[in-house]
Amino acid sequence: MHKNYLEISQVGIEFPTEAEPFRALQNVNLSIQQGEFISLIGHSGCGKSTVLNIIAGLYQATEGGIILEGREVDEPGPDRAVVFQNHALLPWLTVYQNVELAVKCVFKKTKSKAEIREWIEHNLELVHMDHAMHKRPGEISGGMKQRVGIARCLAMQPKVLLMDEPFGALDALTRAHLQDSLMEIQNRLGNTVVMITHDVDEAVLLSDRIVMMTNGPAASIGEVLDINLQRPRDRLSLAEDPAFNAYRQQVLRFLYEKQKNPAAKPKQVESASKSEPKTDKVSAPEAA
Ligand SMILES: Nc1ncnc2c1ncn2[C@@H]1O[C@H](COP(=O)(O)OP(=O)(O)OP(=O)(O)O)[C@@H](O)[C@H]1O
Ligand SMILES: [Mg+2]
To answer: Are 6 and 160 in contact (CB under 8 A)?
Structure first.
């Protein structure tokens, strides 16, 4: 177990714009242990995806950088697989072929044809999608597509799994189901995960630590909350657990008292909480 397995060190980024450069992040520092599950939470537009894209090597930091197992990483690589919000499957390939594409990228030289087939099937079994492996994305539901996206990433055996609101587009029941699968898989495989979410319950349920970001520009890490709840975690019993609710309160307090969203008008916040009384989603302003 490496203590500083993945390090986000002094990261800052400026985006060029027509007027003056826009400073999105400043001084972002975080050390992540191997096997840790980290959630990133913060108001819309604060810079969560930017942090994830820098870890993935898709964006170059202006200052500082990312160190994985003692080596700086500044370009994309199969050691850091990304699960996007909208699954990003190729529509003309079957479920099996979508996963195969990624597996061949990584294991073409080290696994035989038979081993590759077995490995693809094994990863589809992990997310309970082996029954639909010969279907195309257009023939399966949104939740199923998201499962395939997760299987594709797991099949690459990345050092770090990066997830940008992986369940954001799903209905509450499917989301709960996938959260449970993800907890079960992570428990079994010990993946190191960095996941962005807008959902406070999801963050507390899944994480070892919740990283709360301040509002931009020049966003940074405001607070880090350790979630010391025993695993395996059960959503039903946690719903009545005082410790679980205390963690939720701490995240909500950070988001709505310490880092009020300047772009959210009070009316919007009110209507958002009326329509979804049971989940605490970070309110999104209409335009960043
Ligand atoms: N390529 C880019 N060029 C210019 N500005 C950018 C670029 N990417 C992001 N930004 C700006 O950086 C800030 C952070 O954006 P980012 O997408 O990381 O936010 P976020 O926290 O992921 O938001 P959301 O929750 O809405 O997804 C925003 O103000 C955004 O407009
Ligand atoms: Mg984002």
So the answer is: yes
For residue 195, what are the β-bridge partners?
39, 163
Nearest ligand (C-alpha, residue 24): 1
Give the ranges where 2-141 is alpha helix by DSSP (H): 48-56, 95-107, 113-126
* Ligand 1 nearest atom to the CA of residue 47, by list position: 18
Q: Hey, is 169 helix, strand or coil?
A: coil
pLDDT above 90 for 59: yes
The residue whose CA is least distant from atom 5 of ligand 1 is: 15
Question: What atom of ligand 1 comes closest to residue 217's alpha carbon?
Answer: 29
Cα(first)–Cα(last) distance of the chain, in Å?
Answer: 39
Kindly state the tokens that stand for 112.
């035989």
In DSSP notation, 132-165 reads GTTS-GGGS-HHHHHHHHHHHHHHT--SEEEEES
Query: In this structure, which residues have their CB less than 5 angstroms from ion ligand 2?
Result: 49
Across the strands, what pairs with 231? none
Residue whose Cα lies nearest atom 24 of ligand 1: it is 44
Residues 154-179, mean pLDDT to the nearest whole number: 90
Closest ligand 1 atom, residue 51 Cα: 18
Model confidence pLDDT, tens digit, residues 222-276: 999 999 999 999 999 999 999 999 999 999 999 999 898 766 544 444 344 444 4
**Most ligand 1 atoms within 8 A of CB, residue of 14, 46, 281 to mutate:** 46
pTM as predicted:
0.89
Nearest residue by C-alpha to atom 7 in ligand 1: 15
Express the helix, strand and coil content of the chain in percent, nearest 5 each. Answer: 40, 20, 40
